[in-house]
Amino acid sequence: MGEVFFDESVILLDVEGSTKEDILTVMSRNLEEKKLVKSSFTQAIIARENEFATGLPTGGCSVAIPHTDFEHVNQKAISIAILKEQVEFGVMGDESETTPVKVVFMLAMDKADEQLPLLQKLMQVFQHADTLKYLASERDKTAIKQVVKDRLGIAALKGGE
């Protein structure tokens, strides 16, 4: 899959917002400040989330995995936001339903064929309620980074170590 940027600088704790758009804006602007994504990324990820919801009512806590087209990405990255308060996201596959999301995994992939393998690995992580509960309550970004790296089985994550 190549190297994916993932370090403490893209793990956001106590993110505040009253709508999914607020949360997506905070996360994507953080990626943009680090030059990992283009200025078009924020608008693109919000538009895609509104068209294809990514909320998942999983055991432990609900999660969302927003992502958008690779042409808005400069460098592969994964960003995680632990929300201060749950925010409603549309349910994947059933936009008429919503789920109160606590953890958001934002994906910025620079090749179309690399998104699916990462999504599949994330789906395996989401099947472990204990892991999700841990992530939702952990306050140490380094500990969060290590758990995610271990669970995704990605050794080649780079970032400010």
Question: In a few lines, what is going on in this structure?
Answer:
The chain is an alpha/beta fold and 161 residues long. The chain has helices at residues 20-33, 41-51, 112-126, 129-137, 141-152; strands spanning 4-5, 11-15, 55-56, 62-64, 77-91, 94-108, 157-158.
Distance between the termini: 20 Å
CA-based gyration radius: 14 Å
Sequence of secondary-structure elements: EEHHEEEEHHHE
Label the structural class. Answer: alpha/beta
Main sheet properties:
5 strands, mixed
Low-confidence stretches: none
Shape: globular
Number of H- or I-type helical stretches: 5
Extended strand count: 7
Mean pLDDT level: 92
Assign a percent range to the helix content: 25-40%
Q: What portion of the residues fall into strands of 2 or more residues?
A: 25-35%
Oligomeric status: single chain
How are the strands ordered across the major sheet?
2-5-6-4-3
What does this structure look like?
By secondary structure, this protein is α/β, with parallel strands linked by helices. It is 38% helix and 27% strand. The chain has helices at residues 20-33, 41-51, 112-126, 129-137, 141-152, and strands at residues 4-5, 11-15, 55-56, 62-64, 77-91, 94-108, 157-158. The strands form 2 sheets. A 5-stranded mixed sheet has the order 2-5-6-4-3, sandwiched between helices. The protein has a two-stranded parallel sheet with strand order 1-7. A hairpin with a 5-residue loop joins strand 3 (55-56) and strand 4. The longest helix has 15 residues, at 112-126. The two termini are 20 Å apart.
